[in-house]
Amino acid sequence: MTDLAPQDARRLSLPLNWFGVAPFLLFALLFLILPTAHIVLGAFRDVQGNFTLDNIRGLFTPSIMGAFWISIRISLLTAAFGCLAGFLIAAAITRGGLPQPLRGAMLTFSGVASNFAGVPLAFAFIATLGRLGFLTVILKEWFGLSLYGSGFNLISFLGLTLTYLYFQIPLMILIITPALDGLKREWREAAETLGASGFQYWRMVALPVLWPSFLGTFALLFANSFGAVATAMALTGSQLSIVPIILFAQIRGDVLQDPHLGYAIAFGMIVLTGVANVIYIVLRTRAERWVK
């Protein structure tokens, strides 16, 4: 029997190679690409299916613009605090000389916490910081401090921000830890040989190298917070007007139902989160090139 030429062998093996990624491609097509295309087209159509810009103009009404502004503020705030706290924790477990088991435990917890959202997370915060929550009762009975008497409210801008930080900080830890591990020891030794202090090393060597990763993760955390809906719905219901809740009301609500306006709101969310993810990908690629 004649052996196949190398070109023929590669040609025959190609379908098998593509067969392995076919489930992912099919999943992406059915649950990401086609729904996104449907939303984008629906944002520019009316009930009769005709082209219109009225849905896009509807985005600029005060209520919807206010919802976008609240969502952007929450996303920026949680991304900023998430990046800062996550960076400090990651630096402590990677460069601070802490025991190795602590690093493993922290990364394991971060992997779980970064995916802990929705109704379970909302319930956990209500049970902890609600009006009859564990921490609320402890502070009042043991220390005489009334959280809600001092103006705090879990079902508010501040309460939702604190809840989002629960998964924003661990996500930052998971992403920035490999970047911190990529800092070469030779760079620190060279800086110390030239007389640089620890502060100067971080300011002039480490942070410029980590800056693309830091900014890229900030963009990713912004997108992660901006698109979160289940946690906000379970925690605040309709008491806080953020974009995902307004979107849900337009598509599934009994009173405010306007699917095509909902498509326009979703289109606006896609644009904002898409820009944030593009920024993350570009800066992440740049950061990896720096480390190499």
Automatic annotation (TrEMBL):
Record Pfam families: BPD_transp_1 (PF00528)
Annotated compartments: Cell membrane
Domain ABC transmembrane type-1: 68-282
Alphabetical list of InterPro entries matching this protein: MetI-like (IPR000515), MetI-like_sf (IPR035906)
PROSITE patterns xref list: ABC_TM1 (PS50928)
Coiled coil: none
Transmembrane segments: 21-44, 64-93, 105-134, 154-180, 201-222, 228-249, 261-283
A GO cellular component annotation in the UniProt record: plasma membrane
Main localization of the protein described in the UniProt heading: membrane
GO biological process, one term: transmembrane transport
SUPFAM superfamilies xref list: MetI-like (SSF161098)
Keywords recorded for this protein, A-Z: Cell membrane, Membrane, Transmembrane, Transmembrane helix, Transport
Membrane protein topology class: Multi-pass membrane protein
Family as reported in the entry's similarity comment: Belongs to the binding-protein-dependent transport system permease family. CysTW subfamily.
Name under which the protein is recorded: Putative spermidine/putrescine transport system permease protein
